[in-house]
């Protein structure tokens, strides 16, 4: 092998390792994002539908309060 072939081989191996590492990191970020969205969905379902922090009847009364009476 000549010097150029050796350098190209090293560069190809380095790039392949770099792409593998970046791919693993992107996969981990996507899994974390998926887990966070599931957690947020659970929190929002509990808050709106479960009678937790915000109940639908209270929400409609707040909307009616801000609308005010037009007469």
Report a brief summary of the structure:
Helix content is 82%, strand content 0%. It is an all-alpha fold and 71 residues long.
Task: Walk me through the structure.
By secondary structure, this protein is mostly helical. The protein has one domain (3-67). 82% of the residues lie in helices and 0% in strands. The chain is built from two helices and no strands. It has helices at 3-48, 56-67. The protein starts with a helix and ends with a helix. The model has no long low-confidence stretch (mean pLDDT 82).
Features:
71 residues; mainly alpha; 82% helix; rod-shaped
Layout of helices and strands, plus pairs?
Blueprint: H1 3-48, H2 56-67
* Average residue-wise pLDDT: 82
Please tally the helical runs, counting DSSP H or I stretches of 4 or more residues.
Answer: 2
What is the N-to-C succession of helices and strands? Answer: HH
Low-confidence stretches: none
Helix coverage percent of residues?
Answer: over 70%
Shape: rod-shaped
> What is the distance, rounded to the nearest whole angstrom, between the alpha carbons of the first and last residues?
92 Å
Total discrete domains: 1
Given the helix and strand composition, which structural class is it? mainly alpha
The beta-strand count equals: 0
- Major beta sheet summary: none
Q: Tell me what portion of residues adopts beta-strand conformation.
A: under 5%
Cα-based radius of gyration, to the nearest Å? 28 Å
């Amino acid at each position: 092998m000549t010097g150029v072939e050796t350098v190209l081989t090293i560069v190809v191996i380095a790039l392949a390792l770099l792409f593998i590492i970046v791919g693993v990191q992107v996969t981990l970020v996507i899994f974390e994002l998926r887990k966070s969205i599931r957690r947020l969905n659970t929190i929002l379902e509990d808050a709106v539908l479960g009678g937790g922090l915000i109940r639908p009847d209270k929400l409609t009364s707040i909307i009616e309060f801000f609308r005010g009476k037009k007469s």
